Amino acid sequence: MPLLKLEDTYLHKGKRKALVREIKQKGISDERVLEAINTLPRHFFFDSALVSHAYEDKAFPIGEGQTISQPYTVAFQTQLLDVKPGQKILEIGTGSGYQASILHLMGAEVYTIEYQKKLFEGTKKFLNRLGITDMKLFYGDGSQGLASHAPFDRILVTAGAPVVPDALIEQLVPGGILVIPVGDRSRQKMLKITKQKGGKYTSEEYDYFAFVPLLGKDGWR
To answer: What is the pTM of this model?
Structure first.
């Protein structure tokens, strides 16, 4: 990712406000989610060639076959997570670091894991430039979760999975929530899974979305 001047101008702030209005009209009602999206400069996470598109409600490529998710999708998943300050959250699929930074802004203790090594290394350096140094970044197979740091209050998967990996449910605390898109390679249904005492869980289904595939042992090969 080329080094950008990390400037947040009145024009950027105005575009961000317009983006927040747009996703609010699409049904996002959690004021803390909207505030985080309004606060975090999305254009910082863009390659210089695409930076003029940063406040469109669309996904864009970030290299290594990955994307920065559509803002509405980020907001929708974050709203389903029901994030509370101080919660320990695992994100599967660091990507550009944008979603993880939203969770960080909302006061979560964020652990995030990325399958693509080049992307992991670049994003780690970039987040340090932003001054986000207390986020825990890992390189590895996110479909297996992060057992060495479990359990988690929340787990968020930002790639399309063929199934719900058992390891992710196991790594939730009782009462914990997993948000994951599950389906085929072209589209996935968003699931919100809440773990009960005794290891049982309930599952709620939401709209269809289109994510890049979750790679790994319990993802796509």
So the answer is: 0.93
